[in-house]
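Before relying on records like the one below, remember that each one covers exactly one chain. Contacts with other chains, cofactors or solvent are not represented anywhere in the record.
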Amino acid sequence: MSILLIVPAIIGWLAGWLVNYLADVLPGTRRLSQPACVQCNEPLEWKEYLLFQPCKNGHSRKVRAWIVQVVLLSASIYTWLNPPAKIGYIFGFTIIIYFATIIVIDIEHHLILHPTSIFGSLLGLITGTISHGISATLWGGLGGLLIMIGFYYFGILFTRIRARRMKSAGQEADDEEALGQGDVILATVLGFMLGWPLIWLSLLLGIL
């Protein structure tokens, strides 16, 4: 058993490289490009990047890079030992890789990018159809879309009312919105994966 765990360990380490790479390049270029130092934008050779070496100006990599590597390696081993029903290890771990990329980019840049949304939609359609059939998958996606659109426009209305009240009280207005269009797309992806009616309960718990 311990020897067989080498396989998911290697896959997990490679997945960590992938998540770190996507989180480093997509927010800035919106495409697959050569990695660069996030502090000085100095291009990094692939050997330097994969071995976590400092850039030519001496800037070290983020601690996040090592955290992602350890988390993905551990998640790969756990998913290997406890594969999700119906979708198995491959699709199960692919979902983990996808959401790891979403989480890292969102924490660091407050963005949910269109390339990740497109990939997530395809992944959600496939895994959802395998898990609970095409009908529940499509209804789940539609439900997630409509529910989150409702929250999105309610958030816009609430923000405008709050800004007006702050201005009338002589305070500096804060017009930052709690939800963005990326959140709506992500809710649709989750709807595909979870299906109907589980998506509405999941969104409710997530919002709370």
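Residues 155 and 178 are 6 Å apart (CA to CA).
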